[in-house]
Design goal:
By secondary structure, this protein is α/β, with parallel strands linked by helices. The chain has 2 domains: 159 residues, Glucose Oxidase, domain 1; 229 residues, 3-Layer(aba) Sandwich (Rossmann fold), CATH 3.40.50. The chain contains 10 helices and 20 strands. The strands form 3 sheets. Strands 10, 11, 12, 13, 14, 15, 16, 17, 18, 19 and 20 form an 11-stranded mixed sheet that branches. Strands 1, 2, 3, 4, 6, 8 and 9 form a 7-stranded mixed sheet that branches. The termini are far apart. The mean pLDDT is 95.
Length: 399
C-alpha cells in the first residue's frame, strides 16, 4: 500500500506515525513517498534481507530492534522470494557503505528500486517499547512532500487502512503456478525417497530446498490448489508453509487440509500451516498483542523437555488446551496434544495428532535466517511418511 518515487536522500525528512497518534521523526531510507501497514518489530540481529523478502511480512512495516542495518549490503542469493514484501522499513542507523565480499549493492538502493518507503534515524528501542506495551498497530511512513502534510490528515489515512484481522493475504503472495524442486539439484544422491505437495501460502525459498536435500521431491503449488489437483501428484505427504494474514479467513486451505487428514496422508505444517492445522482440527485462532518476530525465540519440546532457539514471524496463534492430550473438536480426527510451547509467554508453538499422521510447529525450521535447532522436524516428517508408507504396504499385502 505504498506510493513511492525516486531513491531517498539521507537528509529528506520522514515521519513514522502510529494509529494512536505517536509520531517518530527521522530521514528517509529507500524510496521517498508514503506507505501504510501494520507496525511490528523483529528482534533478529542478522538476516535483514531474508526478513524483508519473507512473504509473511506482507502489508507490515518492519521495525528492526538491531541498531545497525545494511552493513553487509544485499545479494541475490539471500533473497527468500522474488521481491521485498514488507510494506515499509524502520531502522535506527543505516549503513552508509556496505562492507562484505558477497555484497552486490546497498540496501538503500534496493529498497528504492523496489519502491519500499523507509525511515532511518529513529529510536527503534522507543518504537519497540511502545508497540510492546500498546500492541502491533496500524501505521504509516511518510517522507518528502508527504511528511510535510498536517499530521491530522496523515493520521486519517493511517486509521482508514484495514486491520490485519480479517485479511486474507495468502493468495496475494503465493506462486502463480506450480513448480517442482528436485532432490538431485540439491546434493541428494540416489533415488527420490518421497513425493510431496507443498501448498505455498507465502513460502520462503529455502523451505523446499531443506526437504529436497533430504531426498524429497517437492511439488510447490499455489494457495488456491484443490485437494483433487494436489492428489494428482500422488503425494506421500502434504506440507503447508508460512504466510501472512488472518487464519480465520483461510476457509479454502482449512478444507484442503481436512481432506488430506481424512485421506490419511501425512501432514506437516509450519507457521501459518500450524494455524491451519489447528483450525482444521476445530480449534480457534487469535491475534497476539505484538506477535513473535525474531531469531531468538525459546521454545520447549514438551515430549523431551529440550529447549530450541527458533526463528519466528507470526502475529496469530492457535487456541488449544496446553495440558495433556485432548479430543479434537472435529472428533473424527481423534486426539491431539500441544507438542511445543513458547517459554516467553506459553503460546502454542506446535501440535501433534495422536491418531492420524499429522503435526505442525509455529516457527521456521528452515533457518533462513536463524538457528538450526529445529532442522530435525524435516527428518521427523520423512520418518512419518516412511512409517505411513510401510504400514500401508503391509495392509495391502494382508488383503
Amino acid at each position: 500500500m505504498s506510493e513511492a518515487s525516486v531513491p531517498a536522500q539521507a537528509t529528506t525528512p520522514a515521519l513514522l506515525l502510529l494509529e494512536d497518534g505517536r509520531a517518530f521523526r527521522g530521514t528517509s531510507y529507500g524510496a521517498v513517498g508514503s506507505t501504510l501497514g501494520e507496525a511490528v518489530f523483529t528482534t533478529g540481529m542478522t538476516g535483514y534481507q531474508e526478513t524483508l523478502t519473507d512473504p509473511s511480512y506482507a502489508r507490515q512495516l518492519i521495525v528492526q530492534t538491531a541498531p545497525h542495518i545494511g552493513n553487509t549490503g544485499v545479494n541475490a542469493a539471500d533473497n527468500e522470494s522474488t521481491r521485498i514484501w514488507a510494506a515499509g522499513y524502520v531502522v535506527r542507523d543505516a549503513a552508509r557503505r556496505p562492507s562484505n565480499w558477497r555484497s552486490e549493492g546497498t540496501l538503500d538502493d534496493e529498497l528504492a528500486a523496489q519502491g519500499i518507503v523507509g525511515i532511518q534515524g529513529v529510536d527503534t528501542r522507543a518504537v519497540t517499547r511502545h508497540l510492546r506495551e500498546r500492541g502491533a498497530m496500524k501505521a504509516g511512513i511518510f517522507s518528502g512532500d508527504a511528511a510535510a502534510r498536517p499530521e491530522a490528515e496523515l493520521l486519517g489515512e493511517v486509521l482508514a487502512q484495514p486491520s490485519m484481522e480479517g485479511l486474507q493475504l495468502a493468495e496475494e503472495v503465493t506462486v502463480p503456478k506450480a513448480y517442482a524442486v528436485e532432490p538431485a539439484d540439491h546434493g541428494w544422491e540416489g533415488e527420490t525417497l518421497f513425493n510431496i505437495v507443498a501448498l505455498d501460502l507465502g513460502m520462503k525459498s529455502m523451505t523446499p530446498h531443506r526437504l529436497a536435500e533430504r531426498g524429497v521431491r517437492v511439488h510447490v503449488v499455489p494457495a488456491s490448489t484443490t485437494f483433487e489437483e494436489a492428489m494428482a501428484y500422488r503425494p506421500d505427504g502434504v506440507f503447508l508453509s508460512n504466510g501472512p494474514g488472518d487464519p480465520a479467513t483461510a476457509d479454502r486451505q482449512v478444507g484442503f487440509v481436512r481432506s488430506f487428514l481424512e485421506a490419511g496422508v501425512p501432514y506437516f505444517g509450519i507457521c501459518f500451516g500450524n494455524q491451519i492445522l489447528g483450525r482444521a482440527l476445530g480449534f480457534g485462532t487469535y491475534k497476539l498483542r505484538y506477535g513473535h518476530r525474531g531469531m531468538n525465540q525459546p521454545v520447549m519440546d514438551r515430549s523431551t523437555g529440550k529447549v530450541e532457539i527458533t526463528s519466528q514471524n507470526h502475529g496469530f496463534a492457535v487456541d488449544a488446551p496446553l495440558e495433556g492430550a485432548t479430543q479434537a473438536p472435529e472428533e473424527r480426527f481423534g486426539r491431539v496434544q500441544v507438542s511445543h510451547i513458547s517459554l516467553n509467554d506459553q503460546v502454542v508453538e506446535g501440535l501433534s495428532c495422536l491418531d492420524i499422521p499429522a503435526f505442525s510447529v509455529q516457527y521456521h525450521p528452515e533457518a533462513a535466517a536463524g538457528p538450526h535447532d529445529a532442522a530435525y522436524l524435516f527428518d521427523r516428517f520423512i520418518a512419518l511418511m516412511d512409517h505411513n508408507k510401510t504400514a500401508k504396504t503391509k495392509t495391502e499385502e494382508a488383503k
